[in-house]
From TrEMBL:
Gene3D superfamilies listed in its UniProt record: Alpha-catenin/vinculin-like, Talin, central domain
Keywords, comma-separated and alphabetical: Cytoplasm
Subcellular localization: Cytoplasm
Keyword Cytoplasm: yes
A GO cellular-component term linked to this record: cytoplasm
Pfam (any one): VBS
Originating species: Grallaria varia (variegated antpitta)
Entry GO MF terms: actin filament binding; integrin binding
Principal location: cytoplasm
Any GO BP: cell-cell adhesion
Start and end residues of each Vinculin-binding site-containing domain: 16-117
SUPFAM superfamilies: alpha-catenin/vinculin-like
Annotated protein name in UniProt: TLN2 protein
C-alpha cells in the first residue's frame, strides 16, 4: 500500500496564494513544497511500479511528473514575486500556477485511488469471507452443543 502525506493540498496552496501579500513567506513555502514533492515522487514511483494494470502505473507516473513540472513553475513564480513584490502580473501568474498545481494534485490522487481499487476489492472480499467463517463457526458451535433443531434423527457428527 502506498502511504504518504500529501501536504501539497488545497490548504497549502491557499497559504501560497495568501502569501502574495507577504512575499517573504514564499521562500519557506517553496522549500516545503520541494521537500514534499520529493517524498511524493519517491512514493509515486513505488506505487506506479506495483500498480495493476500497467496503464494505471503509467498514469500515476505521468501525473506525478506533470505535478512536478507545475511545482517548478510555481517555485519560479514565487521567486519572481520575491524579486519584485509589487508586480501585479507576477502575482496573478503565481495564483494561476497554484491553481494549476492544485488541479494536478487532484489528478495524482485520482490515479492513486484507481490503482488502489484492486487492494480495496481484496479487503472487501477478505472481510466478507471472515464474516462467513464467523457464521460457520457459530453454527458449528450451536450444532455441537445440540441446540439446533434437526430435521430428522441424524446427528451433527454424522454431517460434520
Amino acid at each position: 500500500a502506498c502511504r504518504f502525506s500529501l501536504s501539497l493540498s488545497p490548504v497549502f496552496f491557499f497559504q501560497m496564494t495568501k502569501s502574495v501579500t507577504n512575499p517573504e513567506e514564499l521562500g519557506g513555502l517553496a522549500s516545503q513544497m520541494t521537500n514534499d514533492y520529493g517524498h511524493l515522487a519517491l512514493q509515486g514511483r513505488l506505487a506506479a511500479a506495483t500498480a495493476e494494470p500497467e496503464e494505471i502505473g503509467f498514469q500515476i507516473r505521468t501525473r506525478v511528473q506533470e505535478l512536478g513540472h507545475g511545482c517548478i513553475f510555481l517555485v519560479q513564480k514565487a521567486g519572481a514575486l520575491q524579486i519584485c513584490p509589487t508586480d501585479s502580473y507576477t502575482k496573478r501568474e503565481l495564483i494561476e500556477c497554484a491553481r494549476a498545481v492544485t488541479e494536478k494534485v487532484s489528478l495524482v490522487l485520482s490515479a492513486l485511488q484507481a490503482g488502489n481499487k484492486g487492494t480495496q476489492a481484496c479487503i472487501t472480499a477478505a472481510s466478507a469471507v471472515s464474516g462467513i467463517i464467523a457464521d460457520l463457526d457459530t453454527t458449528i458451535m450451536f450444532a455441537t452443543a445440540g441446540t439446533l433443531n434437526a430435521e430428522n434423527n441424524e446427528s451433527f457428527a454424522d454431517h460434520r
